[in-house]
Amino acid sequence: MLTWPHPGTDWANSLKDVEPVFLEIAKSVLRYQNLLISCEHVARLQELDRDLKAYAAKHGLPGKVITVPAPANDTWARDHGPITIEEDGKAVVLDFRFNAWGGKFPWEKDNALNSHLANAGAFGDSPIRTVDFVLEGGSIESDGQGSILTTSECLMTPSRNPSMDRTDIEQLLAETLGASRLLWLNHGYLAGDDTDSHIDTLARFCAPDHICYVACPEVADEHYSALAAMEEELREFRQPDGRPYRLTALPWPDPVYDEDGERLPATYANFLIINEAVLLPVYGVAQDGQAVTILQGIFPEREIIPINCRPLIYQHGSLHCVTMQIPAGVVNP
């Protein structure tokens, strides 16, 4: 799923730079699977529908394009999009509340987006269930077997769910997501991050027993202490059977700054796993090639597709942040 940028978003002055990134993501996804796109700008959505269907047909791609007009404040589908679970063998679409990372930006349209998609029939016969809890998809990372990796900096921020403590949150995620345990990281920091330390920019499950993570080797870098402490926490985590996790450190990219000299949260952890491939954000820096090599070693059965996400990072997010996966059989092409 992609929520396409339009002139009513913060991308208004950079659409010529950012739309090619979205198009590259879209075309890469269509090589392997179906693609759901929503956009507030109906004329642009019609163009995308026509052009992407023609592209898929010309290249004989298996993916089908589904387009739905829907209002949106922004494009971060990972955080305002649906989270799908399986219940009694059937998919259920969960619609958590979204308040733009604790009320930092306008959010009303994004919060209503999943309802718009459901009303348009985008989720087929799968029921949609509203959950009265603020949760962004980028703040949780699941191994698919009941363990969820997250950060206390994000989930415990008072501007999201002020009446709930850690025990309350663990109970709610157990009830709604089937989580048998939460692995809480209490350290982890990226300059320029608006999300209060989303896990999907810091550490990711590559397999139920394998976590890759952001590591900063530069002692003089402002990130060094926080990320070294996070690395130690990851080393202390144990799998349900008591064994430590396999850990792989990701390269630390050269700093990327905006026009005001503010450092931006560019990391290689913000990759997207799709059918038979991994889409990897790169930033036009020296470490890009090393990141491709490391990801290929982690996912030897998948094609690693690097996508230059430098235009995305100027709005403080990257590739995983603008996408949301939906299980097969939910969206009717």
From TrEMBL:
GO terms for biological process: putrescine biosynthetic process. Gene3D superfamilies: L-arginine/glycine Amidinotransferase, Chain A (3.75.10.10). InterPro entries: Peptidyl-Arg-deiminase_porph. Pfam families: PAD_porph. Keywords: Hydrolase. One of its GO terms (molecular function) is protein-arginine deiminase activity. It comes from the Bacteria. This is Agmatine deiminase.
